[in-house]
Structure formats: C-alpha cells, structure tokens
C-alpha cells in the first residue's frame, strides 16, 4: 500500500483532498501538508518527517505537490533523497489525485507515479477541442520594455548587480517568475555559506534555474572574489542572500551595494514580524541598521508587481525583543 502526502502552497492541499473525498470518499492513508506565509523549507521538512515517522519505513510514499521547484517540492526532495520507496510528482490536480487514490492499493510506486503524470496531461481538455491536439509553438510575446540601469551598476568595470534580494528560500518560484523577468540578468547567484557546501540543497536550487539563465550557489567569500574579477565586467547578475548580515559582509569585502530588496525572511521562534513575509531577530535588526548607516536604500517587496515599502530606521526602532 502506498501512502500519499499532498503538499501545496497555502491551503490548496486541504481543499483538493476535501474535494477528492466528495467523489472517492475519505482515505486514511492520504496526508495533507500546508505551506503558509512565514513558513520555510525547514518547516515543511519537519511536517513531512512527522508524517513519515508514523509510517512503517518499508512502505512506499508518493508526494503529490503543486509546483516543480516550489518549496513543497524542494522540501520533499530533501526528504526523498534519504528515504527509499519515495517519489514526487508535481502539478497535482483533482483528476490526478482521484486516479491515484483509485489505483494506489494495487499499483506499485513506479506505476502510481506514471499514472499521475499521464492523467495530469490527459485530463486537460478544451470545450471547443476536447481531443488532445498536436503541440503548438509558443506564442510570441511582445518585446520587453526597455530595462533601466541596474541599481547596483558599477561604471568601473565590474559586474552589475541587477537585483540584490534577501530571501530565505534563495532561488524559487517568485524569483523565477517575477524578478528574473523584471530586471535585466544573465545569471543568478544564490549566496549562502551553508547552502553552498550542502550538495543536496545546492542541486535543488540549481535545477529550478531556467535554461536561458546560468545559476551558481556560492559562499559570501566567493561572491566577493567574483565581483572583483574583471573577467565578469558588464555581466548583469541577480544576487540572492538569506540575511542582511551577509550583505554587510559583502560591503566590507568591497562590493558596491546601493539598494536591497527585502523579499522574504522565514519566521523562527522569538522573531518579530515587520511585514507578512519578513521576520527578524536581534542580529537581523542590527545588520539592517548597519546597512542604513552605510547609505543602503532598502525596501520590502515580495514580487516586482508589488509596491515598494521603504525599510526605515523608524520601522526598525519600534521593534522590541
């Protein structure tokens, strides 16, 4: 018997399982995991492990998640690498879930994964053209609007930092679907000492990067060295870090930084929220204040379409621990 773990952004996982129950009935071996604002990859891993620890180690588990490269997928991949008889299928839909529920008591894990993928494609129909059609070329899009000069542009022959963003998740859907399209860039740097030395997490991040961009997961020290290397002069790069202290280190290493986008910082016990998506501790506040002293302009903004909210000294001063 295969156990299912349905995991998605928000509470979609709860609702799709409830919808399936209306058709198929309740299934005690289907487990729901939500991913809510303020949570991060480690929270998802903890939720997954809590479920897996209640199951016999030899029994197969199939994760059905929403987005390839999203946090529910990345956390599931971290778990699956160390657990046998475990697979992940993305793009969950109600037809997919119903078909898997119907087959899971008799099919193998491999057969279930294949079934999920096949149904995920076959269930997509058009009212005017219900039969599957031959693949069509992607429609051409209008030319992009002229891109302004990167805020961290350096006229002295070094690379241009198109966007410097604080994001606990580093490379993920918001970065790929919003920021990589909104700013001029040829590559993405995910800068974090811990992740750069973790082979699994590094590979998970790199597989999300689209083919037309290059992706690198590097340490803070490596980022400083690369920025000073004239070989990369004129290159437009998105830089992603997980915390403001690493930006202070970058500046101390000689990297020219004028602006910072504060996108998302995962909540941990004892943290204080300064926005729905940004939670800080004492060290973060001290680092943010240091950046303000250095003349860095900072704004809270999750996606490019959102309005910027300045991160000011006054906003930081009211935070009490």
Automatic annotation (TrEMBL):
Gene3D superfamilies: Phosphotransferase system, mannose-type IIA component (3.40.50.510), Phosphotransferase system, sorbose subfamily IIB component (3.40.35.10). GO terms for biological process: phosphoenolpyruvate-dependent sugar phosphotransferase system. Its EC number is 2.7.1.191. GO terms for cellular component: cytoplasm; plasma membrane. Pfam families: EIIA-man, PTSIIB_sorb. GO terms for molecular function: kinase activity; protein-N(PI)-phosphohistidine-sugar phosphotransferase activity. It is found in: Cell membrane; Cytoplasm. It is an enzyme of class 2 (transferase). InterPro entries: Bacterial_PTS_sugar_comp, PTS_EIIA_man, PTS_EIIA_man-typ, PTS_EIIA_man-typ_sf, PTS_IIA_man, PTS_IIB_sorbose-sp, PTS_IIB_sorbose-sp_sf. Its main location: membrane. It catalyses: D-mannose(out) + N(pros)-phospho-L-histidyl-[protein] = D-mannose 6-phosphate(in) + L-histidyl-[protein]. Keywords: Cell membrane, Cytoplasm, Kinase, Membrane, Phosphoprotein, Phosphotransferase system, Sugar transport, Transferase, Transport. Residues 1-124 form the PTS EIIA type-4 domain. Transmembrane segments: none annotated. Residues 157-321 form the PTS EIIB type-4 domain. The phosphoenolpyruvate-dependent sugar phosphotransferase system (sugar PTS), a major carbohydrate active transport system, catalyzes the phosphorylation of incoming sugar substrates concomitantly with their translocation across the cell membrane. The enzyme II ManXYZ PTS system is involved in mannose transport. Homodimer. This is PTS system mannose-specific EIIAB component. It comes from Alitibacter langaaensis DSM 22999.
